[in-house]
Amino acid sequence: MVEYTDTELMITRAARELKNDDTVLVGVGVPNLACNYAKRRHAPDLEMVYESGTIDSNPSKLPLSIGDPVLVTNAGGVVPMLQGFQHYLQGGHIDAGFLGGAQIDKYGNINSTVIGDYDDPDVRLPGSGGACDIASNTDRTFIITSHSERRFPEEVDFVTSPGYVDGREGREELGLRGGPEAVITDKAVMKFDEGGEMYVETLHPGVTREDVLDATGWEISFADDLGETPTPDAEGIELIREDLDPDGVYTGTSD
Amino acid sequence: MVEYTDTELMITRAARELKNDDTVLVGVGVPNLACNYAKRRHAPDLEMVYESGTIDSNPSKLPLSIGDPVLVTNAGGVVPMLQGFQHYLQGGHIDAGFLGGAQIDKYGNINSTVIGDYDDPDVRLPGSGGACDIASNTDRTFIITSHSERRFPEEVDFVTSPGYVDGREGREELGLRGGPEAVITDKAVMKFDEGGEMYVETLHPGVTREDVLDATGWEISFADDLGETPTPDAEGIELIREDLDPDGVYTGTSD
Amino acid sequence: MTVVTDMADAVSSALSEGDMLYLGGFTHLIPFAAGHEVIRQEYEDLHIGRATPDLIFDRMIAAGCASEVTFSYAGNPGVGSLRAFRRAVEEGVPNPIEIDEYSHFGMISRLSAGAQNLPFVPLRTFVGSDYPEHNDHIRMVENPYESEPEEIPVVPPLNPDVTIIRAQRADENGNAQVWGITGDITEAAFAADTVVLAVEELVDEDVIRSDPNRTIVPGSVVDYVVEEPYGSHPSYAQGYYDRDNQAYIEWDEISQTQEGIEEWLDEWVYGVETHADYLEKLDTGQFIDLLPKSNYATPIDVGDY
Amino acid sequence: MTVVTDMADAVSSALSEGDMLYLGGFTHLIPFAAGHEVIRQEYEDLHIGRATPDLIFDRMIAAGCASEVTFSYAGNPGVGSLRAFRRAVEEGVPNPIEIDEYSHFGMISRLSAGAQNLPFVPLRTFVGSDYPEHNDHIRMVENPYESEPEEIPVVPPLNPDVTIIRAQRADENGNAQVWGITGDITEAAFAADTVVLAVEELVDEDVIRSDPNRTIVPGSVVDYVVEEPYGSHPSYAQGYYDRDNQAYIEWDEISQTQEGIEEWLDEWVYGVETHADYLEKLDTGQFIDLLPKSNYATPIDVGDY
Predict the structure, then answer these.
(1) Element (H, E) at B214
(2) Nearest Cβ partner of D220 from B47, B58, B75?
(3) Given this structure, which CATH class describes domain B98-229?
(4) pLDDT digit string (tens) for D3-13?
(5) Is C132 on the interface with D (CB under 8 A)?
(6) Euclidean distance between CA atoms C274 and C265, whole angstroms
(7) I need a labelling partner for D81 at 20 to 30 A (CA). Which of C57, C168, C219, D39 fits?
(8) Same CATH topology for A1-94+230-250 and A98-229?
(9) SS3 sequence, D257-271?
């Protein structure tokens, strides 16, 4: 039995969602690790695009931000910001994208703008960045986050990035491309049903239904064939610890 | 008395319209000669932009087309076609532009599209290229052409490039920038009055009012202080013949 | 996936009868060899598009490849008329063609709308001209702000079935680098379903990755890559060879009649199997005359991070 | 006419109280030295804009320079919150600020509309989000074609009174060349009334003209040129120096309180006269650590025509 942290499990599980011929819009932190992990393991041709306009980046070390110079050196291309959003994202060339947020609701709508009232906020968050744009124009989006009731309210305070809005039909009627594909937390992996509502597909080893229900702001349902999330292998753990994040910047703690 | 051809007179007269701090959108042929002439004589800082996207070109020899490699080598910049039109032209950074055409009417509207009916043409011309865009977005446009009744009808068969449309007010109401500033032919120099109608400002040496009236499709009026067009000096002729167009590609014949 | 192949295979694999075919490259890197290959494969019902049709469309039209032409300037640049284009429009010779025309700005805006998946893009041109009257693609949209103008022209996307572009160099994945006039190449590639890229030189991936800002088309939108030196002749490739102006001037003579063009095509297109054979027929002296002296860009340091 | 000067003169000449000031550079070439100069000159009522406010806006806000902020991502990249920005929005400390926010795509689209003199540009974002409800600048326009969607969001132009940008190199006329992430620099420059350009190196005009495709801002839109090496520290200049990540992490600590920031400003901004003095205060070791190994781009031949 290989030992792993929650974050390492989230990285390896998220990496499985990426296919060899995907073009992925990478975020920093855990998504970045997941993408680089996938590229080293099963998806060598994975094309990593960053919202700063670097195309097919091959970072020699872990970038701290989405605009680090290491994403430029040895990249396939670099385009102006406008072209990145217009041609790559809006043009439909991004297969997969990662999103984070302070709140996610049951339709996968994400809030990274504000806790409380927009005009008189309790907590002012950074805002969209490219998130709203990615959520609106990517075939498959993935959310990686820790799992708590605060993070999974029934309704978010502000929709920064639309998920299925009020259901798959709602999203489709609005003319938005794709939609959320999976939510990967430190407790479980969630997918979205035909109506666009989140359900639990697998539980991580040692996590119970009750743990998830307690940490979710609505009565989330579970797959009929509820399974267990596959865990990292020894080779994967070594790759993360020795190579991708040797300083433990992102994997040093489990949140 | 220096001898000169009609074309040489047109080049030197057109060059006078260009100021040292102008950014000019250059056409090929005679306009190109006029711009290069101005740059060598009185406007060393003249910035020459070509619709192919070359910015501040410094051609070492006469380009045959608006997209020759000589316009790139030693240029200040080269931008994609879209950016040239969006940022430079539509963005309002072009002070002066040159236009040609098969027909020009009394409001300076130009036809370079078709003689006869659009759907069943007598003569199909090349079309707009950048002409309609230049005519719509430049502070001052100049027309250089030979002078004949066929070229100066009261109404053009097709408006490719709007001049004052049906008068200065008409143009302004349409929200078009600037407008035609001068028409320079092998007989005279025409400007536009307060209403936006063309009138003769100067006659070339040896040309009479009747010559111009005979070669114009409407009763064109003449300036109260109708003058004579200034002619090239010896230095100017030498510059054209020795340096700018040594093979006489454009200046070899007078039309 | 990007496939490295030859032009005959790229054209026959990518292009179907009835397709809209766009040839990119504004006055630079015009895909002449590709156009000749389309003629050789005897397509008869293509909707062909280029901002500047140039000699290559004159040849394709005279060869009977085209039923419709989308364009913005149909002239022989610096020389005069495109005579075959005119004969087709004026007299229906060798067959009638429909035309769909714009200003240059209108044309590149259509490609841009296509490249970025927008239903339309606004632009300040066409107002006061006769274009909107003759082209239903040009429409007006109201400005929802309290600013001028109250309404503005828009054009819809142009999405070619196939775009053929050229570049100075690319790697085997189709990451393409161009210097000099870049024109409409990026938009034409992103707007198309299928992209054929022909290059002067196929280079190692390291060459491309040493200067990522130079990449104007990413391999992820390229389907076929063809290495074809001098494939733009008589157009040019900045730093590789000059425009063959003599060929443009001679075309004015050759194209005086449909028969004249047919004879030329028999010798230079139908009479050769590949672009390499076409080059064989040129005089060595032409290659030498067209070669520019070298003039390197000042290097930049991207840094090893 | 472009004037070569120092940053103190450029800022005081270009910027008036009440102006909209945009600092260009998306995560790269952030104009830190310019922002510090704005603080030193004690502006109090600026509308400041950046896609990524970054540490420089946190400092300007804490210094009381700003009454309004237009932005799309207000975070300490890779670290966390912008604490001074949050204090201003949440508590009105040191003064309340208005905010005008977009997604990145919305932000760059506003600059693009400004750069190209359009009343609006359409884009496929904001639908299904709560932005339109809180930002009256985001409106809808009907699609005049028989295509999807029936209506589409648009944003209006953003035209800063003053834009400050940085580049790796420029000539004395202000022709600026950038490699690595070019971001919003071109649009921010074209959209503005007045442009201040700061560069790592002022170079001979021949250097620029040897590689015209590399020019992303032409001198004709630049009003002031300032040579200011390391002027982006703690941000970076590709090929010149790396991002000083330690400084970003330390800011998280320094900015815990308004007082903490004020102390920092006293030492590093008010306490020095110029950016050169600021650099003097850094450890030599930092410069060495941030220096990348060289890694030159493969040369290109533009050709001598």
Answers:
(1) helix B209-214
(2) B47
(3) alpha beta
(4) 999 999 999 99
(5) no
(6) 13
(7) D39
(8) yes
(9) CHHHHHHHHHHHHHC
Chains in contact with chain A (at least 3 beta-carbon pairs closer than 8 A)? C, D
Q: Are B163 and B185 in contact (CB under 8 A)?
A: no
Pick the CATH number of B1-94+230-250 from 3.40.640.10, 3.40.1080.10, 3.40.50.620, 3.30.70.330: 3.40.1080.10
Q: Which of B69, B122, B159 sits opposite C130 (nearest CB)?
A: B159
Global confidence as pTM: 0.97
Average confidence score pLDDT of chain C? 97
Which of A61, A132, A164 to probe the D interface (max D CBs under 10 A)? A132
pLDDT, mean over chain B: 95
**Inter-residue contact D45 to D192 (CB < 8 Å):** no
Residue pair D148/A181 in contact (Cβ under 8 Å)? The answer is no
Domains of chain D: 3-102+159-290 (3.40.1080.10)
ipTM topping 0.90? yes
Q: Which of C116, C221, C304 sits opposite A73 (nearest CB)?
A: C304
Q: How far apart are CA D94 and CA D254, in angstroms?
A: 16
Q: Which of C103, C118, C200, C236 should be substituted to probe chain B, the one whose Cβ sees the most B Cβ atoms within 10 Å?
A: C103
Residues of chain A by 3-state class (helix, strand, coil), percent to 5: 25, 25, 50
Neighbours of chain D (3+ CB pairs under 8 A): A, B, C
Give the model's confidence band at D145: pLDDT under 50 very low, under 70 low, under 90 confident, else very high. very high
Per DSSP, the residues of D212-256 read GGGEEE-GGG--EEEE-TTTTTTS-BTTTB---HHHHHHHHHHTT
Residues of A in contact with D245 (CB under 8 A): 64
* Shortest Cα distance, chain D CAs vs residue B24, angstroms: 12
Rounded to a whole number of angstroms, the distance from the CA of D59 to the nearest CA of chain A is 16
Residue C78 has pLDDT above 90, yes or no: no
Residue of B8, B17, B51, B201 marked catalytic: B51
CA neighbor of D197 nearest in space, from D233, D243, D162, D159: D162
Instruction: Tell whether omega for the bond before D234 is within 30 degrees of 0, i.e. cis.
Output: yes
Sign of CA dihedral B237, B239, B244, B246: positive
How far is Cα A109 from Cα A135, in angstroms, rounded to an integer?
9
pLDDT tens-place string over residues A95-145: 999 998 899 999 999 999 999 999 999 999 999 999 999 999 999 999 999
Number of residues that make up chain B: 255
Q: What percent of chain C has pLDDT over 90?
A: 97
What integer pLDDT is reported at residue A252 of this predicted model?
67
Facing residues of A120 across strands? A117
DSSP strands (E only) in chain B = 23-26, 47-50, 54-55, 77-78, 96-99, 103-104, 110-111, 114-117, 120-124, 140-144, 179-184, 188-192, 198-203, 221-228
Domain ranges of chain B: 1-94+230-250, 98-229
Q: Which residues pair with C99 in a beta bridge?
A: C69
Q: Chain C closest CA to D118's CA: distance in Å? A: 7
Tens digit of pLDDT for each residue in D81-112?
A: 999 999 999 999 999 999 999 999 999 999 99
Helix or strand (DSSP H, E) at A190: strand A188-192
pLDDT of residue B249: 81
Q: Above 60 in pLDDT, residue C223?
A: yes
Question: Could you say which of C116, C215, C303 has the minimum Cβ distance to residue A77?
Answer: C215
Count B/D contacts: CB-CB distance under 8 Å: 64
Contacts of D212 in chain B (CB under 8 A): 54-55, 72, 74-78
How much of chain B exceeds pLDDT 70, in percent?
A: 98
The 10s digit of each residue's pLDDT in D17-41 is 999 999 999 999 999 999 999 999 9
d(CA A156, CA B87): 40
